Amino acid sequence: MSATPASGEALSFDLRLAAGAFELRAAAAVEGPAAVLGPSGAGKTTLLHAIAGLRRAEGTLTLGGAVLQDTGRGIYLPPERRRLGLVPQAGLLFPHLSVRRNLLFGRRRGGGRPELPEPAGDDFAALVEALELAPLLDRYPRGLSGGEARRVALGRALLSRPRLLLLDEPTEGLDAERSRRALAHVARAAAVAATPFLVVTHELDEALALAREVVLLEEGRVVAAGPAGEVLTRRGLPRGPHAGRHANVARGVVARHDPESGVTAVELERGGTVLVPHDAALAAGAPVVLAVDAEEVIVSVAEPAGLSARNVVAAAVDALEEEAGSIYVRAGGWVARLTPAAARELGLAPGRRVWMAVKSHSWRVVLG
After folding, report:
1. Is the CB of residue 66 less than 8 Å from the CB of residue 21?
2. pLDDT digits (tens, 9 = 90+) for 182-202
3. Which of 24, 116, 254, 355 is 20 to 30 A from residue 262's alpha carbon, by CA?
4. 255, 277, 253, 363: which is closest to 3 by C-alpha?
5. What is the pTM of this model?
6. Residue 316: enclosing H or E segment and its boundaries?
7. 10-245, superfamily in CATH?
8. Of the candidates 257, 252, 220, 217, which has an alpha carbon nearest to the alpha carbon of residue 238?
9. Domain at 249-367, CATH class
């Protein structure tokens, strides 16, 4: 089973909505899997509800070339005709229905017949497996944890066969370990259903884990949009807890475990292997997404020896960028943050060969 998120048709929006003193004026074009990232109060959920049609906004919205709304021409499809699957933070399951019947309600909305037993091997069985819902099928929402309820809501939305899945803060309130598992469930289930998605979040790691494209939102305005690797490694969040962070993101698969050395080896899509702290819960061959902040990357102009850092990559400097009193060194697809004094003392310049080193414990497993 692949955990690669499904690619989808382009979503383009130019929406305006006033709510008291707050005004949303957001325009961007992305192709899922994508994320809307921003601090609390940026208008992320308002934007998601406007796309879903739950909040009436002025402007235009298209998906794969199909016009969902163009208020200037009097076009406005209601939510039920947009074929979008919304998974809110609370899940909002039907309390009087079992997990099985909550899921089958999604099949009914997607054209299935929920009164019939689910046939083996169909989309129902595949999603139950991907979301690890088999032990929960006969339980009722009141007996589920918050994370379990969200998995059921995700499965129900996907079984309605939406053209685009909309996710609102899927890891809100979960600890780091549960967040990792929740993100893995999202990626696996969306891949099984071949459904692209748009996720709103204030967590940088969540956007890094799930999205190929990202929209940065601040105070109801889009401040950047484009490929996640480019936007997030160059910009980070404009303000809030992640302001100024530049993150390196690496996708790969678990290659092997070495518990005696305390490491797990991950083979990267871009080539090469990195070592992260040993984690027996990561299955061999399983896809993972790793991240490390630019501040954690050590730069050397001579091949390092005697370092405690276990991950070293040689590359030529592509660019030196000054931002907010720091120098960001870009080399071989990686980025490191240095002080201007350190960059001068090292004699860094485009084309110079450097070695980028990262300690194993500096890597974060954000999906896996």
Report:
1. no
2. 888 888 888 888 889 999 988
3. 355
4. 253
5. 0.74
6. strand 311-323
7. P-loop containing nucleotide triphosphate hydrolases (3.40.50.300)
8. 217
9. mainly beta
